[in-house]
Amino acid sequence: MSARWTTAVLDPQIAGGWAVARSPAGFLVDDNGALFPRDWLKRQGLDVLCEHGIGHFDGEPVFLLELRSATDVPGMTWRGLRQFMLEGDFETYKLLGYAAQIGTWAREHRFCGSCGQPMTQIRWERAMHCLACDLRSYPRISPSMIVLVTRGDEVLLARSPRFVSGVYSTLAGFAEPGESAEDCLVREVREEVAVEVGNIHYVGSQCWPFPHSMMLGFHAEYAGGEIVMQPDEIEDARWFNVHDLPPLPANRSIARYLIDLYVARRLGLPEPTLPN
């Protein structure tokens, strides 16, 4: 059976299909979700910045209306992408996650980064084109490494000041230019908690509800050092026994999956599945 959501470059000049509307306040939703008949949605007086054909949902074409600002539509509200990730249908989250990435890219590439002239949307590929200097800009992805560091029955978890109160999670950080995934992982762990790691294994990946972000998940074993927390980034970090864990990240997140997977393997429990 084919996936319900598939990406594709669709010409906005074709008629019909479904559409989602995204503003700085999130996605437009009603009691039935975020997908609306496209022709109807375009008659609602929305402040449309641009439109992109982004793929198919259950075989039907889907378009993104990227908005300059949120508009009040009777009976509807605006909902952030993270809420979709944590609740409801995961296929819808994947659709909206892709839409958010394309919308952010389209908003940020209205003008050429080389000469400053307006850019033109290319209909047959996912690119913006500058007629003045022939520059083409494509959607970018910023890879981030997220890792569970373990020491036997213990897992190393930390808190950022930005986390929900009381919640501990795995360590993570964005790759720098020229780094391999493994180099990034080792550097981030060293910077955040001053610990050395080894025996690194890739586990899985997840599109994260932040602009351009792709989380690459790893497991690594403790190789030495004492925890020293990075100022302003880590407010607490410690070793937790798998039998006595603190409040953890929400289900469906790759951080929670990395923890649950290790605990399951350590205790001989059924292994969880990473939503994808």
Please characterize this protein's 3D structure:
With 276 residues, the chain is an alpha+beta fold. The protein has two domains: 5-108, Nucleoside Triphosphate Pyrophosphohydrolase (Alpha-Beta Complex), CATH 3.90.79.20; 142-267, Alpha-Beta Complex (Nucleoside Triphosphate Pyrophosphohydrolase), CATH 3.90.79. It is built from five helices and 16 strands. It has helices at residues 38-41, 81-86, 90-108, 181-193, 254-267; strands spanning 5-10, 18-23, 26-29, 36-37, 48-57, 60-67, 77-79, 120-122, 127-129, 136-137, 142-151, 154-159, 171-174, 196-207, 213-224, 236-241. Strands 1, 2, 3, 4, 5, 6 and 7 form a seven-stranded mixed beta sheet that branches. Strands 11, 12, 13, 14, 15 and 16 form a six-stranded mixed beta sheet that branches. The protein has a three-stranded antiparallel beta sheet with strand order 8-9-10, with no helix packed on it. The model has no long low-confidence stretch (mean pLDDT 93). Zn(2+) binds at residues 112, 115, 130, 133. A divalent metal cation 2 binds at residue 188. This is NAD-capped RNA hydrolase NudC. One of its GO terms (cellular component) is cytosol.
